[in-house]
Amino acid sequence: MVSANPHQTIHTGGLTPLEQELALASFGPGAHDPAQTRGVLVDDGAQASPRGADAAAQAAATLDAVETAIANATGTTGATGVASAQSDSVDAARGDPSASQSNPLHHGGDQAAPAYAPPPRYDPRNPHLGVWNAHLASVRARNALALPLRGCGRLTRAAGLVLEAVGLRLAVGAEVMIELPPGSPLPMAEAEVVGFAGDKLFLMPTTEVAGLLPGSRVWPLESAPIADPMAGAKRLPVGWGLLGRVLDASGRPLDGLGALDTEADAPLTAPVINPLNREPIHEVLDVGVRAINALLTVGRGQRMGLFAGSGVGKSVLLGTMARATSAEVIVIGLIGERGREVKEFIEQILGEDGLARSVVVAAPADVSPLLRMQAAAYTTTLAEYFRDQGKHVLLLMDSLTRYAMAQREIALAIGEPPATKGYPPSVFAKLPALVERTGNGPQGGGSITAFYTVLTEGDDQQDPIADSARAILDGHIVLSRTLAEAGHYPAIDIEASISRAMTALVDDQHLNRTRAFKQMLSRYQRNRDLINVGAYVSGRDAVLDRAIALYPRIEAFLQQGFRETANYDQSVDMLGALLGNISGNAQGNGSGART
Ligand SMILES: Nc1ncnc2c1ncn2[C@@H]1O[C@H](COP(=O)(O)OP(=O)(O)OP(=O)(O)O)[C@@H](O)[C@H]1O
Ligand SMILES: [Mg+2]
Questions:
Q1: Rounded CA gap, 238 and 235, in Å?
Q2: Which residue's CA is minimally distant from atom 8 of ligand 1?
Q3: Which residue's alpha carbon is nearest to atom 28 within ligand 1?
């Protein structure tokens, strides 16, 4: 507020440094001398100091005061307004930038600016204050209209899968938007930074880039400086509303059931869990498959590999587990599958009951490799969400090999040298990074039990991905083409399969029976030809004799119809009924709880 003459009352609260400086420049010297100034500086909320004794220290003026000063200067307000003002001042006060810009810049001092002759009621020592203030006001008004400054780079190269951009400094994994020309189906293309060389960024698009022009502008998704490293990360929907839904790699519904009902979103990466904080695997997870429950017992939080060539029953086995498991939530990632197979899996193998407590993320073979990788990460993110809510989650990923292949496509495209069987080293780093996100959470929390299918090309168990997966997983179930061809389903090769957590999960008797079962099966397989041609004479080998006698029951035990399920207790009881008191030479040490 400013009082009328002879004294102006000027408030000093809420000023920017620049405004304070201006006020100081304008009012400061005069503030000490009542003879020279009519201004009295007052701190907001403080008592007025008519003489402005400490005005030099407090020398600042509020916007109110300055505006009123302009009004006085230009005669635009109040009955005591100025009759006339110099044209520049008037223009400036009206916000005419052309007028207001020039004067302050070219004004050398009070005497050198006759054009700013002060109005009668205004401090003659501050003729240009109004001009300055008007200028500031117009700058502020223009600032308010201006869009935030967004740094952008330019696209310099698009070759194969990879785009190159210059002019940006972004971290690997950052998201960018690339402009597409008008008329393109999408206004912008999305891409991710997958590498760099010097000042060139390598970008991998995640959406359609048809129509991309050389020199297109590239913006970081988050251009503001960010304190939280996860703040700019891509987040996808998670939540209980996703149960029963089928989503794509970006969390968009594929099932035509309308918008998603989600309560939260989560980033695609997660902080590494301290291995010492993880709950050990000590509880059995019922997977509904007899051969696995009884002979390859799986624990909650265990990570298993399902190793098989194509067409030997991986998808059917995963579907059986999804329908019959005791896990509370199932998260299924279909990565790099044929598009037709996705529908078949959901409708015929998983079925309505299985889908009701599942979330399916599908990224078939025809989507970009980046999206295939993103789908695997999203599947894991969803499982982590449910685990962090204390639930026991079953994660089924078909397949880990396709995930590795997607990373191979990207890595080779950006020039990473191939190592083993064309797989660049980054592939072998990505696999454990993905797999380690699953498993048990901190003590007392939920768990993610995971099954990853691993394709063994030409049923070659020494495939580098199979090798690497075997090393990072807590067990492997091998499906045999020979068994599948003989109509033996699920075609689990019991001898070649192992559950590394089993000894900590089951009691000694169960473990001994498992060993005895494997011994008999193995002995029978090795002598099958002799037995078939009648060359084996009974009585020579007691184990083989028992195996021959029990073989039809062993086979029946191992086989399970597509729609049949066998819970954990039934499976163990049936094994007991089959083997009775027969025991192998194993010594178990566990006594796991049944669930
Ligand atoms: N438990 C089962 N009972 C009867 N038939 C089965 C069973 N499991 C698999 N099959 C047969 O095997 C075929 C192939 O199974 P599935 O699609 O699960 O194989 P896959 O390993 O997933 O193949 P791909 O590598 O092509 O994905 C099925 O179409 C079905 O005919
Ligand atoms: Mg399959």
A1: 9
A2: 313
A3: 313
Decide: pTM greater than 0.90: no
Of 545, 516, 515, residue with least CA distance to 530: 545
Whole-angstrom Cα distance, residue 456 to residue 477?
12
595 Cα to the center of ligand 2, angstroms: 28
Which residue, 126, 120, 213, is CA-closest to 165? 213
Segment 529-585, tens digit of pLDDT: 888 777 777 777 788 888 888 888 888 999 998 888 889 999 999 998 888 766 554
Q: Are 223 and 363 in contact (CB under 8 A)?
A: no
Q: What angle do CA 312, 313, 317 make, to 5 degrees?
A: 150
The ligand 1 atom at the shortest distance from the C-alpha of residue 312 is: 21
Tell me the best of 292, 315, 338 to mutate to test the pocket of ligand 1, counting ligand atoms within 8 Å of each CB and taking the most: 315
- 10-41 b/e with 16+ CB inside 10 Å = b? bbbeebeeebbebbbebbbebbbeeeebbbbb
Q: How far apart are CA 499 and CA 303, in angstroms?
A: 9
Q: Pick from 100, 129, 107, 116: which is nearest to 27 by CA?
A: 129
Rounded distance between C-alpha atoms, residue 492 and residue 134, angstroms:
83
Q: Please spell the DSSP secondary structure of 169-184, one letter per residue.
A: ---TT-EEEEE--TTS
- Residue 135 CA to residue 103 CA, distance in Å, equals 9
DSSP, residue by residue, 430-472? HHHHHHTTSEE-BTTS-EEEEEEEEE-GGG-TT-HHHHHHHHH
Is the per-residue pLDDT at 66 higher than 60?
A: no
Token reading at 532: 């078939």
CA of 490 to the centre of ligand 1 (A): 9
For 91, the 3-state DSSP assignment is: helix
- Residue nearest to ligand 1 atom 1, measured at CA: 562
Residue among 316, 334, 401, 560 to mutate when testing ligand 1 (max atoms within 8 A of CB):
316
* CA distance linking residue 507 with residue 589, whole number of Å: 7
Tokens of 539: 């009585």
Taking the C-alpha atoms of residue 464 and residue 405, their distance in angstroms, rounded to an integer, is 11
Give the tens place of pLDDT for each residue, 119-164: 555 566 776 787 888 888 888 888 887 766 667 899 999 876 789 9
The 3-class secondary structure across 207-245, one letter per residue, is CCCCCCCCCCEEEECCCCCCCCCCCCCCEEEECHHHCCC
472 neighbors 275 (Cβ within 8 angstroms): no
Residues in contact with ligand 1 by the CB-under-6-Å rule are 308, 310-316, 489-490, 561-562
Q: Could you write out the DSSP letters of every residue in 463-509? A: -HHHHHHHHHSSEEEEB-HHHHHTT-SS-B-TTT-EETTGGGTS-HH
